[in-house]
Write a structure and sequence with these properties.
Blueprint (H helix, E strand, L loop, with lengths): L4 E5 H15 L3 E5 L1 H5 L3 H7 L5 E4 L2 H9 L5 E4 L9 H6 L2 E5 L2 H8 L6 E7 L10 H12 L4 E8 L11 H11 L6 E4 L1 H6 L7 E2 L25 E13 L4 E2 L5 E2 L4 E6 L16 E4 L2 E6 L7 E4 L11 E5 L5 H8 L3 H6 L7 E4 L1
Parallel strand pairs: 1-18, 2-3, 2-9, 3-4, 4-5, 5-6, 6-7, 7-8, 8-9
Antiparallel strand pairs: 1-10, 10-13, 10-17, 11-12, 13-16, 14-15, 14-17, 15-16
Helix pairs in contact: 1-3, 7-8
Bound molecules: pyridoxal-5'-phosphate.
């Protein structure tokens, strides 16, 4: 067996959920488990986050997987239904749906299926999904008249909660329109939960922070008291001694300017490690920090063992996890922790602990 593995720590998920609860009290917590639980496995994530008040996913298949596993909480489909024929299952299984466009309102008006819970989404500047503030009020009254609709929550999603300009403009826009409305409200993702307590409202919708990665560039997950839920590990499967002037890997991207010792790790981009990771990306061998060198190949990558004389074939390697923050690897590779976690390949065996 190839020694690669992703270990999912359910106690870390549960801990991070407690951090959200403590931060956002008394708001209720809708744990976002889309994208296969941010790459942790939908049911692995749900089990660690079982104390959440609700779950959010994208597809009906994921919602049904949660129901079949016995979860009774509210489940929200973040993009709503994609066709009217999904409404029957939605109603039968007590699944809530986002409504973000007129076509979805028409599906509701034209169905005989009743008892549907709706999150009506405002577009406050992201210009992805949702109704513009100018038409929100009229859309809301149209929805409120729809006898198929059981209850309504008002929501928006911020484009810049993690950035310097923050949420003041979109949040003011949202508030101006819904101020006098007595419906429950939900606007905050992880960055907004951590940065703007005024956005907590009735429901918060954390994703990335539950998995122990940061939503805010330049501020570590650990600084928020979060713990890595995934530890991605493998082993050294070969070593090479380099003479001055010798290169490694495809394209010879790294050339030794001194005598060096290199380890070959059983992990490549086909496992989900970013091919764009440059020389110097942080990685740990036998619990000691070192760096990657050379180009990441499909099944293998190179680590610098020059300062680690005891490291050898069979030595353990942490690609990311408790010791090497996924955010540090992501920053080095020019991406965000979200993308790396979601991209762990199906061929990587997952083990659940905690
Ligand atoms: C993904 C998503 C979230 C969670 O975002 P994080 O940045 O991972 O906390 C919240 N709300 C909506 C609508 C989303 O699509």
């Amino acid at each position: 067996m190839r020694p690669i593995q992703a270990t999912i720590d359910r106690s870390a998920l549960n801990h991070n959920l407690s951090v959200v609860k403590a931060t956002a009290k008394p708001s209720k917590v809708m744990a976002v488990v889309k994208a296969n639980g941010y790459g942790h496995g939908l049911l692995n994530a749900a089990k660690g986050l079982a104390a959440a008040d609700a779950f959010a996913v994208l597809g009906l298949d994921e919602a049904l997987a949660l129901r079949n596993a016995g979860y009774q909480q509210e489940i929200l489909l973040l993009e709503g239904v994609f066709s009217a024929d999904e409404l029957l299952v939605v109603s039968n299984q007590n699944i809530s749906i986002v409504v973000h466009c007129d076509a979805q309102i028409e599906m509701l008006e034209n169905t005989h299926i009743e008892s549907i819970s709706v999150y009506l989404k405002m577009n406050t500047g992201m210009n992805r999904l949702g109704f513009k503030p100018e038409v929100f009020e009229s859309t809301l009254s149209r929805l409120a008249q729809c006898k198929q609709v059981k209850d309504i929550t008002l929501m928006t999603h911020f484009a810049t909660a993690d950035e310097a300009q923050g949420i003041s403009v979109p949040f003011a826009l949202f508030n101006r329109v819904i101020e006098d409305k007595s419906y429950p409200k939900s606007v905050a993702n992880s960055a907004s939960i951590l940065r703007f307590s005024e956005t907590h409202l009735d429901w918060v919708r954390p994703g990335i922070m539950l998995y122990g990665a940061t939503p805010i560039a330049g501020q570590s997950a650990a600084s928020f008291g979060l713990r890595a839920a995934m530890t991605f590990t493998s082993q050294i499967i070969a070593t090479q001694a380099l003479e001055i002037g010798e290169s490694i890997g495809y394209g010879g991207r790294f050339t030794a300017d001194k005598k060096m010792r290199i380890g070959i790790v059983a992990c490549g981009y086909a496992d989900g490690y970013p091919r764009h990771a440059p020389n110097g990306t942080p990685i740990a061998v036998d619990g000691l920090m070192t760096q990657t060198l050379g180009r990441v190949s499909m099944d293998m990558l190179f680590v610098d063992l020059s300062e680690l004389p005891d490291a050898t074939i069979g030595s353990s390697v942490e690609l990311w996890g408790n010791q090497v923050p996924v955010d540090a690897v992501a920053e080095s590779a020019g991406t965000i922790g979200y993308e790396l976690l979601c991209a762990v390949a199906p061929r990587v065996p997952m083990k659940v602990v905690g």
